[in-house]
């Protein structure tokens, strides 16, 4: 397998994967979405809430606020030694919020949340939680724990993880009349006209919709849009809790663990 990085930053990773197949790509995608753990607020104890939003709505908004995750220092609640419903310092982070609108209406942002562990904080300071009118107050204690996307979307470390086949486009050489219909219809602006010929300017933008082939007045069209069956373009967008490459690494590790477990079980059955 060969991996080539197209784009990489704190939240986005775009790679080309060659010599792979659909089952593997899909397994990694599904593990990234549903199994790779991340931190999210699970319980909120409301001490005072005189805002117009109900406790449940504020708790829901807090739950969906992405938190920076530290997978090394915390255990998943189910596997933590404490086996306690309330958790222990190894499987729970306490966050507090104490906000009051003293001088008139104001918005409470995620940046006002205080954590017992400065590593586990909202990924952005600018997520609005509630708007308070003058003299309204919001005071609460929240408990964040690790969890998996399969039990709630708030524990999904990626907002998007998708792959597509690597496109393969053959542009017409002489049979084309240069009507430029394929260029106009393409929603991804894959083609340009160069010296009265259709050429590909952005191959990876192609999402194989085939609109260009259908728009071509010539039947069969001299324009061919195909794909490589063993090469993929994979796009991963992290919520900010974990770097996107870490999410994919964890997904690969989980797949390995599951296969090892399967191998152990089948060995045990044979004996
Ligand atoms: Zn614990």
Report on the architecture of this protein:
The strands form four sheets. A four-stranded antiparallel β-sheet has the order 1-2-12-9. The model has no long low-confidence stretch (mean pLDDT 94). Helices cover 22% and strands 34% of the residues. It is of the alpha+beta class. It has helices at residues 22-34, 55-63, 181-185, 211-215, 244-270, and strands at residues 2-8, 12-18, 38-49, 93-100, 106-109, 114-115, 128-132, 137-147, 158-170, 191-194, 197-200, 224-238. It is flat and about 75 Å long. The protein contains five helices and twelve strands. The structure holds zinc ion.
Write the topology of this structure.
Layout: E1 2-8, E2 12-18, H1 22-34, E3 38-49, H2 55-63, E4 93-100, E5 106-109, E6 114-115, E7 128-132, E8 137-147, E9 158-170, H3 181-185, E10 191-194, E11 197-200, H4 211-215, E12 224-238, H5 244-270
Bound molecules: zinc ion (ZN).
Unreliable runs: none
Shape: flat
Instruction: Give the number of DSSP strands.
Output: 12
Query: Helices and strands: which structural class?
Result: alpha+beta
Helix content: 10-25%
What distance separates the N and C termini?
A: 35 Å
* β-sheet strand percentage: 25-35%
Strand order of the largest sheet: 1-2-12-9
Bound molecules: zinc ion
Number of helical segments with 4 or more residues? 5
What's the pLDDT, averaged over the residues?
A: 94
Please state the CA-atom Rg, rounded to the nearest Å: 25 Å
What characterizes the major β-sheet?
A: 4 strands, antiparallel
Order of helices and strands: EEHEHEEEEEEHEEHEH
